[in-house]
Structures are given as structure tokens and as C-alpha cells.
User: Which sequence fits this backbone?
């Protein structure tokens, strides 16, 4: 039996390698116009079959026209990449942030990927970028050239002006609805991806920089790893392993909090600002990795033990994650029994079954899913119901939740920005709608009235092999706003400047700390006046 399984894995490996080679070999082939038109029809058909709220921000007539107009432009054979640009701009018109068209790019084997990593850090990865007022700036320099100052404007890269490329690619993806802060916050970070889509991965890049009205051109090469530094790290690691207790604690923290090895930071963290622990700060980078139940249980037990009066939850740059996690977190923040989500609209029972269950995975994995398909389909038959309005709904997090015994009762501030998206916007909708928190920062990238996400399979177009990720569930908090297509607005809007980014100032957090002091002073004065009476 073991030999059969091993043979199966070997065969699967060779099939995948062959598929990868075939993909790269035909990457720049010209695709006939009839095949391109067929993929356009296939795309629209799949969107109608799987997307539960396709015409939320665009009418059927308008979207029909866009797809028909696209087909009319396909009058000659073009490459897959050229077709990607055409189809993605039409799909982006649906205005759903989770609906993504992936560009066809060269794929690498594990061996090639390891070899690339071994060659060192790429030119783009040696800097942190941010976009301000249509200009791309370096906010952190991690390159070997220390003459490049934070705050330096990137005028061009290999002759390409950043804002020209960013403006073009802004047509190829969308936020939720009519929000603009999502792209403003993301596009600077994504510039390197946009550039690599166009030019491939480069070992060296020629940057045209501008600093204090002074222009200079510098070529940044792939930075080889510091072998001496790496050797020292290995020695330090061996020394750390000797302290087994400490090593065990670190491993446990990484497992519970979640740990990003590349960025070398924790996904979730809790710390206290004042000596008396009166102000607790909970930073959550995403709702994805780590043992969230243990983290929140321990964190709120500690907050209760320290008798903290104020809780600051930092959801800036949090792109979302698990619905189960945000429902669990909200149970520590709510002030009464709550229903976390409305029933989630889906196109049909089969849209979840075909779209989420059977889509994706290797041949072996699909074969395994086929075995269990009767159980899954039975489950969907029992959980997906047609409502009186004729629409189908999937119930998740819709039953009344009790407030956790360790729930925080004090003042809550929530930090948000344009990269607060998906699940972080859903929990923000609940906190804003229930008036449980005070929001500081800028409008979220995710919409107040919900999003289409949940199960998000990648659908491959038959002729171009381009993949499109499609959300299958309309997920929304019970609270709604009349302003459609916009995010959660802050109670106090504060937008950092380029100078704040360079100096690592945090004006949003600083405002909250000042507000806490003012509140405490006001409370103290009221108590003092009462005592004098």
C-alpha cells in the first residue's frame, strides 16, 4: 500500500512539473480571438453562477454592455497578459474587492525559488514604499546604499514612472464599492508587484531618485545575504536552544499569537501603555494565523486582572481573515447578547458545492473530495435555505451570542485606515453600529454594509488559463448605513503625512492618548466639584 501511495505522489510530482513547464512555454503565445471571446463568455457565466450580489454596484444592463464591448475589441490574436488587462478592467467594474483577476506570470519550481532566495534580497525588497499625493516615496531604506534618505521620491524605475503604472493598474482591481482609501493605501505597496508583472523579477534596477530638489540615478542590485551575520544568528539560535524553558515559551507565543517570519513580528499582540496598566493596546495585523481563542482568552483575563479602563484596538492594515475569529473577539467587546451576522446570501446550494468544494486542488485532492462529496452535499442541503424573497441563504454566526464573562466594559478606541478590509471591516461595522467603540483614523477599505467573500475559489479560464477569484457569500453585519458602497468612517479623521511615515510618528495613536488624558482630567474635575458641594 505504501508503495502505491509513494508511486502516486511521484506521478503527481511529475504531472505538476510538466504542467508548470507547459504553462511557462506557452505564456507569450498569441490566443485566437474566438478563444478569447469564449473566455469572456465563460467569465461572465461563472460570475452569474457563483457571485450572489453581482449587480450591487453596477446594473445588469451596464455590466452586459461592458462584456459585449470587450468582445467587440477582440479583433485579432493577443497574448494572455494583454487579455488579462482587458478582462480585469471589466471584472473590476463589479466593484468587489475580493473579486480578483490574477495576471499570467512565469511560475518557478521549488528548486528555482530556493535558488532565487539564495541569491539574496531583490532590489524592491530593500525599501519600504508609500504613495502620497501621487508620488512614490521611500519610507525605509534597507539597502546597502545608506546615502538614500527616507523621504526620497522615486521618480522612475528603469524609465517607468511609478504613478503612470499605478494609475494604469488601478483599473485592474477594486475596493468594495466606491471607496478610495483602499487603493490610496495599497497602491504604493503594490507598485513592485505591478512592475514585476510587466517586467518579470529583476536582479538589478535603475532608480531615478529625487531628494531636496536634487536628482540622482542609482542602480540597486540584488543584495546577497550577510554570511557572517547568518553564522552569528545560527550560533545565537543554538545558545537560545540551551535555555529550553525560554525556547518553549517563545514557540508557544508564536503558535498562539501567530508569527510572520519574514517581517519578524507577531500577528497579535497585547501591551499596556501606562505604569498602572490603565490603557491596554491590542494590535491585530490579520484574523488569519495563530490560536486566536487562546490569545483572546488570556488577553482579556489579563486586562480584567489589571483593571484597565481603556482598550485601544489597532486594526490598521488588517486585511481580514476568519469570521469565526472576529465573532469570538466581539464577544469580549459587546455589552449585551448579540447576533454577529445576517444570514449570508448565496446564489444556490450548488454554487457552494461546485464553486467552493470541487474547485481547485491537485488531481489526488479532487479524487479525495469526490469520496466525501455525498456528505458535504447533504450538509449543504440542510444549511442552505430559500427565503421568502426567493433568494438562497447560508447561516453562519447568525444565532444569538452571549457576552463573554471576561468582556471588557470600559472605553474602546479602534484605529482604522484604508487597508482595514474584509473581516476587520465587518467587526468594525458591529462596533460602530452598536456604538460600542470610538473610531480614529480614516475610512476603511471594506464597506460598512458588507462584502462578498466567505468561500473564494479560483476559477481558471479554459483558453487563457487566467485565474479569477470569486466570493460566494454576501456577508454583512446586522447594522447598515444608507450610504451604499462606503466604508466605516472614523469619528475623528486623522491621516498621517509623509513626514509622519519617515519619522515613524503615530498621529492617530497620539490623538487617542491625548483624548484619554482630557477625559480623565474632566472626570477628575467633576468628582472634585461633587466633593466640594
Assistant:
Amino acid at each position: 500500500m505504501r508503495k502505491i501511495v509513494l508511486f502516486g505522489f511521484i506521478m503527481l510530482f511529475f504531472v505538476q512539473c510538466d504542467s508548470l513547464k507547459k504553462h511557462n512555454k506557452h505564456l507569450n503565445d498569441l490566443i485566437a480571438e474566438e478563444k478569447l471571446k469564449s473566455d469572456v463568455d465563460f467569465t461572465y457565466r461563472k460570475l452569474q453562477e457563483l457571485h450572489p450580489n453581482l449587480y450591487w454596484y453596477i446594473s445588469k444592463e451596464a455590466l452586459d454592455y461592458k462584456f459585449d464591448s470587450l468582445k467587440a475589441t477582440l479583433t485579432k490574436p493577443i497574448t494572455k497578459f494583454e487579455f488579462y488587462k482587458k478582462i480585469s478592467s471589466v471584472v473590476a467594474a463589479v466593484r468587489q474587492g475580493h473579486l480578483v483577476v490574477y495576471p499570467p506570470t512565469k511560475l518557478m519550481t521549488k528548486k528555482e525559488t530556493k535558488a532565487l532566495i539564495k541569491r539574496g534580497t531583490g532590489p524592491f525588497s530593500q525599501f519600504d514604499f508609500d504613495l502620497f499625493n501621487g508620488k512614490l516615496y521611500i519610507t525605509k531604506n534597507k539597502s546597502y546604499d545608506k546615502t538614500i534618505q527616507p523621504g526620497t521620491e522615486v521618480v522612475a524605475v528603469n524609465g517607468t514612472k511609478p504613478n503612470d503604472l499605478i494609475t494604469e493598474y488601478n483599473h485592474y482591481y477594486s475596493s468594495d464599492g466606491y471607496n478610495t482609501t483602499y487603493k490610496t493605501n495599497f497602491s504604493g505597496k503594490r507598485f513592485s508587484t505591478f512592475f514585476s508583472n510587466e517586467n518579470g523579477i529583476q536582479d538589478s534596477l535603475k532608480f531615478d531618485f529625487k531628494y531636496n530638489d536634487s536628482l540622482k540615478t542609482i542602480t540597486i542590485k540584488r543584495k546577497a545575504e550577510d554570511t557572517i551575520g547568518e553564522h552569528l544568528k545560527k550560533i545565537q539560535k543554538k545558545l537560545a536552544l540551551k535555555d529550553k524553558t525560554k525556547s518553549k515559551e517563545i514557540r508557544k507565543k508564536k503558535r498562539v499569537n501567530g508569527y510572520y517570519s519574514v517581517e519578524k513580528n507577531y500577528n497579535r499582540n497585547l501591551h499596556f501603555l501606562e505604569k498602572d496598566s490603565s490603557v491596554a493596546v491590542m494590535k491585530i495585523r490579520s484574523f488569519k494565523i495563530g490560536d486566536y481563542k487562546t490569545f483572546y482568552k488570556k488577553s482579556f483575563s489579563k486586562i480584567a486582572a489589571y483593571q484597565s479602563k481603556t482598550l485601544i484596538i489597532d486594526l490598521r492594515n488588517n486585511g481580514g481573515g476568519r469570521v469565526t475569529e472576529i465573532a469570538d473577539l466581539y464577544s469580549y467587546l459587546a455589552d449585551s447578547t448579540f447576533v454577529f451576522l445576517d444570514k449570508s446570501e448565496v446564489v444556490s446550494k450548488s454554487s457552494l458545492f461546485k464553486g467552493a468544494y470541487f474547485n481547485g486542488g491537485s488531481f489526488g485532492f479532487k479524487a479525495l473530495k469526490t469520496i466525501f462529496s455525498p456528505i458535504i452535499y447533504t450538509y449543504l442541503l440542510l444549511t442552505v435555505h430559500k427565503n421568502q424573497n426567493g433568494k438562497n441563504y447560508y447561516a453562519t454566526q447568525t444565532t444569538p451570542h452571549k457576552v463573554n464573562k471576561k468582556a471588557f466594559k470600559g472605553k474602546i478606541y479602534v484605529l482604522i485606515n484604508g487597508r482595514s478590509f474584509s473581516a476587520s471591516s465587518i467587526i468594525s461595522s458591529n462596533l460602530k453600529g452598536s456604538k460600542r467603540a470610538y473610531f480614529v483614523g480614516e475610512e476603511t477599505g471594506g464597506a460598512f454594509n458588507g462584502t462578498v467573500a466567505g468561500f473564494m475559489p479560483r476559477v481558471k479560464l479554459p483558453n487563457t488559463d487566467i485565474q479569477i477569484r470569486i466570493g460566494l457569500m454576501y456577508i454583512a453585519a446586522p447594522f447598515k448605513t444608507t450610504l451604499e458602497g462606503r466604508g466605516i468612517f472614523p469619528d475623528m479623521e486623522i491621516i498621517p503625512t509623509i513626514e509622519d511615515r519617515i519619522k515613524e510618528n503615530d498621529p492617530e495613536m497620539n490623538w487617542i492618548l491625548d483624548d484619554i488624558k482630557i477625559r480623565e482630567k474632566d472626570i477628575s474635575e467633576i468628582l472634585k466639584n461633587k466633593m466640594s458641594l
The first strand starts at residue 30 and ends at 31. The CA atoms of residues 87 and 169 lie 13 Å apart. Residues 3-16, 362-366 have pLDDT under 50 and may be disordered.
